[in-house]
Amino acid sequence: MPQVLYDAHPSLLRTRPFGTLLTVLLMLGGILIAVTGDQLVPPELRSQIQSDGRTLQMIGIGVFVFFTLQLLTWWVATLSDHLEITSDEILWTHGLFSKQYTEINMASVRTVRVTQTLFQRIMNAGDISIYTAGDTPELVVRGLPDPGRIRELIKAQPACGA
């Protein structure tokens, strides 16, 4: 059995740092609106607005549920992707109910490309492209933690031509 050198899922916070933060803030805002309801409206405006307080609570609950589902969708998407690197091969698994497997033999790896935006560099995440033959990558994985280590692990394998 080959030794596992790297085993990770893409990270939600590292993949979508601003989206995750904004979604959590909007969820908290929804809770605040649902709990406080009519108390957020200044007293001088309450007479002008035809609201029984229940409407604001429903809006708050709706905002909370919507953004909770958005965050849950992103989280499940990160859990459905998995990268495992052994001394012999790279195995990429994608999917939750139906699975797609991509196996790349270390001997066929020609180039490993790491792409990082400024925010990915801050969060120590990045996108990995693995080329075997031709000009298009065989495998592209987004948002993996510690992409430099992945590149070094693949390059360090004796069978790798990178």
Short characterization:
This protein has 162 residues and is an alpha+beta fold. It has 6 helices and 7 strands.
Overall description:
It comes from Thermochromatium tepidum ATCC 43061. The chain has 162 residues and is an alpha+beta fold. Helices cover 43% and strands 26% of the residues. The protein folds into 2 domains: 4-10 and 82-156, PH-domain like (Roll); 13-77. It has 6 helices and 7 strands. A 4-stranded antiparallel sheet has the order 1-2-3-4. The longest helix is centred in the middle third of the chain and has 26 residues, at 54-79. The radius of gyration is 23 Å and the shape is elongated. The model has no long low-confidence stretch (mean pLDDT 88).
What attributes does this structure have?
single chain; 162 residues; alpha+beta; PH-domain like; 2 domains; 4-stranded antiparallel β-sheet; 3-stranded antiparallel β-sheet; 6 helices; 7 strands
Label the CATH architecture of the largest domain. Answer: Roll
Helical proportion, percent range: 40-55%
Enumerate the strands of the largest sheet in spatial order, edge to edge or round the barrel: 1-2-3-4
Domain module tally: 2
> Could you give a short account of the major beta sheet?
4 strands, antiparallel
By DSSP (H or I, 4+ residues per run), the number of helices equals 6
**Got a strand count?**
7
